[in-house]
Structures are given as structure tokens and as C-alpha cells.
Amino acid sequence: MNKNNTKFELKERIKELSCLYEVSSIIVDSDKDDISNILLRITKSLKKAFQQPELIEVSIDFEDFQISTNEKIQSTPLKIESPIRTFNEEKGRITAYFQELANPSFLKEEQDLLDNVAMKVGSLMERIEISKKESSLRRQMERADRLVILGELTAGIAHELNTPLANILGFAELLESRFEHDLVVKKDLEKIIQNTIFSREVVKKLMFFACEMPQEMKEVNLVPVIMDSINLLDSSFRKNEVKYLVEIDQKEIWLRADPIQLTQIIFNLCMNAIYFSQKGGLVRINAKEVANSVILKISDEGVGLSEESLDKVFQPFYTTKPVGDGSGLGLSVVHGIVNSHQGTIQVENNLDKGACFTVTLPK
């Protein structure tokens, strides 16, 4: 009898060790982008390691993932489970259920096996999360490097264009006064003046992007700046049949900034949100203090941004608008202003629809 027990226990230990080896191999060899498949293979490997595998079903619940060996798994009272922890925080669990309750029981070693596999799954999820953060940081650094180079180029272009544009505008205005009675010439000169003024505004935006515009830094209460900007944009909201909601719990949010450039950030982000909103859509404007920073969020309910647009949205002259609807400098200007204030700006798609721009500025 003892000999049979020893053989049985040895057989069970071999099954458990084989399971741990198989789970380790699955984690090492599998594509880390296919988490669902990895978790499914682990559940199947675990199922085989139990004393009565034909009566056992295994499930793994981890954040958005719910994987089990059987879609029609029965959640029975007789079960064992082990938490999955990442960075010392419980994020999910592995559970083994007996599907029939005719005097079954779990072995102590089966609980130990479940604990070991849960640790391995937790370590895997930690590595995947770290990898994603490293990849995101690398993309941000690459984007920042590109924007620095573009900033230097646009600063040079702006300086080169500023003087000739000023000369064109000055001489055109002088000629306009000389040909005041020649309506044909006067009309042509007006077109030259209008287009020169437009070009000068583009240069001004380039200089904003390149942080070449003088700043007047002072203590500013962000709340009235937001409310004044929204009041001025009210007609644009109504014209486009877009609603807005200002979400600010405080009456005062103070920071050191250039008030005109602060207004320009809000204007450009709101105008962008209005443009991409559908009729009846909602634009949310949220502001709050966090530690030593001020966070401003402006989100819309439009179509959101593609992967390419998320990567290029702050580059000058990049736009998803049709030709003639935008110069592709608005968000570049915002980026330049935020950068000159030692702040950061990020964009991401909302979970349901639309995009959200988050500006973080030091106080």
C-alpha cells in the first residue's frame, strides 16, 4: 500500500514539475504580443497537472483578459485560487474548479503549483508592461528629437522670411496710397497686402513653434483665462452645433505663464476639437492642480486619430484637414508654447470616441 502511495505521489510530482517546465517554455518562446494565446496555453497546461484533470477546469482573470479551459466553465464552491501580482499589486487570479462534487479534493501540492504559476504569470505581465513603457518612452524621445530639429529649421526659415515679407507689405501699402484712384491697380495691391499679411501670420506661428517669440511670464489664474477663452469661442461652438462642458472644481488655479500664450493654447486646442466634432458632439475642458503642476485636458467626441497622426500631430505642416482648411501649424504652435513653458503635451484617443490633449505645466 505504501509502495502504491509512493508511486502515486511520485507520478503527481512529475506531472507538476512537467507543468512548471511547460509553463516556463510557453512564457519564454511565445509572442509577447499575443497574451490571450499565452494565457490559454498556460490554463491547458495546468489542467493536465491536476490529480483528476477530467474533472478540473482552470481560468485566468487578469485585467481585461478572461481565459479558461472551457467556455462553459461552472463556478463551483470547491475551488482553489492564487492571486496574480504585478509590482506588488494584485491584478488578477488563477482559479481551478472541480466540475463534479462527488467527494473530490485538491492536493496541497496542487495549491503550491497554482501559486508558482501565478508568480510566473505575474512576472511575465511585469516584463510586458515594462517593455511597453520603454517602447513608449523611446517613441517620445524620437519624436522630441525630430521636433527639436524641426524647431531649429523653422526658426531659420522664419527669420529668413520675416524681412522680405515686411518689405513687400511696406512697399505694397506705399503703392496703394499712390494708386488710390486706379481701382484695378488698387484691387490687385489689396490682394498682395492680404496675402502678405497671411504669410506673415504663418511666419509668426513658425516663430511660436520655434519659441522665438518674446514671453511675458507672470502669475496667472488659469480659471478666468479658460472662461474668457470659452466665452469668445461661444459663437464658434454654436455655429458648428457643438456643445462644451467646463469641468473645474476650483475658483483659482495659479501658475507662472505668459497669459497671451496660455490663451493661444486653449484657443488652438478648442478650435481643433470643434473642427473634428460631429454636430451635437461635446467638447470637455478640464483643469486641475496636481502637486507642483497644472493639468489642462481638452477632449472631443470626433473620429479620433490614426497611429500615424498620433505620432506626427505636433509636427509643423502636418494636418489631417483638407487642403485649404488648415496650415498644419496650430498644434505645432501649441507644442512650442508648452515646451517654452517647460511643460509637456500629450495626445491619446479616448476609449469610446474622439481624442484628448493633455497639457501639463509647472506652477
Keywords summarizing the entry:
363 residues; alpha+beta; Beta-Lactamase; Heat Shock Protein 90; 2 domains; 5-stranded mixed beta sheet; 4-stranded antiparallel beta sheet
Q: Could you characterize the architecture of this molecule?
A:
With 363 residues, the chain is an alpha+beta fold. The protein has eight helices and eleven strands. It has two domains: 2-135, Beta-Lactamase (2-Layer Sandwich); 215-363, Heat Shock Protein 90 (2-Layer Sandwich), CATH 3.30.565. It has helices at residues 2-29, 35-49, 108-178, 183-209, 222-239, 259-276, 307-312, 330-340, and strands spanning 56-62, 65-68, 79-86, 89-98, 218-221, 243-247, 254-257, 282-290, 293-299, 344-349, 355-362. A five-stranded mixed sheet has the order 6-8-9-11-10, covered by helices on one side. Strands 2-1-4-3 form a four-stranded antiparallel sheet, covered by helices on one side. The model has no long low-confidence stretch (mean pLDDT 83).
What is the gist of this entry?
By secondary structure, this protein is of the alpha+beta class. It has helices at residues 2-29, 35-49, 108-178, 183-209, 222-239, 259-276, 307-312, 330-340; strands at residues 56-62, 65-68, 79-86, 89-98, 218-221, 243-247, 254-257, 282-290, 293-299, 344-349, 355-362.
